[in-house]
Amino acid sequence: MNLLDRLPLTLGPADLLALTVLFLAWFGVGHVIEHPPRLRPSVSVLMKRHRRDWMKAFLTRDNRIYDGNTLMGLREGTSFFASACMIALGGGLALLGNTAPLIGIARELEAGDVPALLLQLKILLILIFVANAFLKFVWAHRLFGYCAIMMAAVPNDPDHPQAPNRAMAAAELNIHAARNYNIGLRAVYFALGAMGWLLGPLGLVTGVAIVTTTSLRREFASGSRRAILRELS
């Protein structure tokens, strides 16, 4: 019996329902944050304007050391999370190859025998989100690098014919990098939520609910959003 034949015997209806909730929440949260209602933009959307304003101010700034340091800080953040994801992937793959240490814990938590294959699937689900986060962080780091090069190519003379276009191109690269960075963070959040599956289907649904609520609150009902809106008003 191969893996595909064993899956229906391993995943019960409750597990399948919980997984459906997880993936619907993942795609739904991403869509709402990236494409929010027109009258209630998310923090991610609001920050796009500030990134463009940053490049407009950069265009006329004589001393651009601050801008370079700011961009360096953004790159260091993506590098940190990418490194953390690599460590998590290594640890997860080690557990995937040897689930014996977790079987006893999982048996106690679920008050019953837990098939090794089901435990491997639970770990694999977490690793999928972590791997997605790693790829997004690496690409964001790369895009911030492109942005740095584009910013360095902006002439010091704001009246130079190519200066505005290069500054706006740098702004768009910055926006794309931030978008991938945000997706990577959401993947980390949902990886943490997926860990609830180790407690069973109800644990997974609970984890997804917590992560979904936290993500939406930070984007649509946080103090940082109110501060941004206050500045824009």
Uncertain parts: none
The tally of domains stands at 1
Strand content: under 5%
Mean pLDDT over the full residue set: 87
Shape: elongated
The helix fraction, in percent, is: over 70%
Helix vs. strand class = mainly alpha
Order of helices and strands: HHHHHHHHH
Distance between the termini: 64 Å
Q: Taking Cα atoms only, what radius of gyration do you get, to the nearest Å?
A: 22 Å
Tally of alpha and pi helices = 9
Structure, explained:
The protein is mainly alpha-helical. It has one domain. It is about 80% helix and about 0% strand. Helix 7 packs antiparallel against helix 8 (about 200-220). The longest helix is centred in the middle third of the chain and has 37 residues, at about 115-150. The mean pLDDT is about 85.
Task: Give a short summary of the structure.
This protein has 9 helices and no strands.
